[in-house]
Amino acid sequence: MPTATKPxxxxxxxxxxxxxxxxxxxxxxxxxxxxxxxxxxxxxxxADHIRPISRGGKSDPNTNGVCASATFNVKKRNxxxxxxxxxxxxxxxxxxxxxxxxxPAAVVERLQRLANLKLPDWYFNRAINWAxxxxxxxxWSKTWDELPVRDDKYWFRAGYKxxxxxxxxxxxxGSIEERGIIESPTEAQRVLLALRKAGSLSSFTKLALEIYPxxxxxxxxxxxxFYPECYVDSCDEFDSxxxxxxxxxxxxxxKLAVETFRCxxxxxxxxxxxx
Length: 275
Known about the structure:
The protein has three domains: 10-114, no CATH class; 118-210; 213-272. It is built from twelve helices and four strands. The chain has helices at 10-19, 61-64, 70-76, 94-100, 105-113, 119-140, 152-170, 187-194, 201-209, 212-226, 235-251, 258-272; strands at residues 45-49, 65-69, 87-88, 91-92. The longest helix is centred in the middle third of the chain and has 22 residues, at 119-140. The protein starts with 9 loop residues before the first helix and ends with a helix.
């Protein structure tokens, strides 16, 4: 029987996150939340065991850990054979080049920039992640058939706990701006960056709630467009519903995150605009 082992510690998770440049090894998704502070579809980062604990894998970041998005972490579960990676150690793999050719310039720039991540940044990334989880609860909990045990207050507390850890570690590393990890921040990014200075749970919560109106608009537009089956009954109605949702999104474009609207607009053009 395999010897039981403990999960990765927070420090080990941070080491994997920094080494892999906040990039999902399976998909190449960017898991540095400041790069897309309000785009709906943000992903949590997870330290994935290459060989799962349930199959005897050890919690060794160097030999048995990779950075994965929540989606791919759930998809893999305890499958130790699922090691087809597009990125490793923050670099495209040969398979990535074979399938997709050279990475776009924006990906190259991002990987170079995120080479400047430090261990405290993982704690701040998690603080943002839990704040967004709290906003998600506030946005959608009234529509859920059954409420989870963990509500928005729980996630705000979890986020503030990670923020305190970040604050304790960050002084020796230089600021995020000084290291060039973020340049010319947008208004939403400035709000999230302001979380760094929160001195209490109440101030952390108040600052996070400043982006709630945008978050709600983003989430509503996203779900109405990409999941029409939740709003209309027939497949024949899906196209009509999407078109109406796109027009609604255009009217409130200034109240949406730029990337959220771009995703909706891109899909709309692919589906409905003749080439």
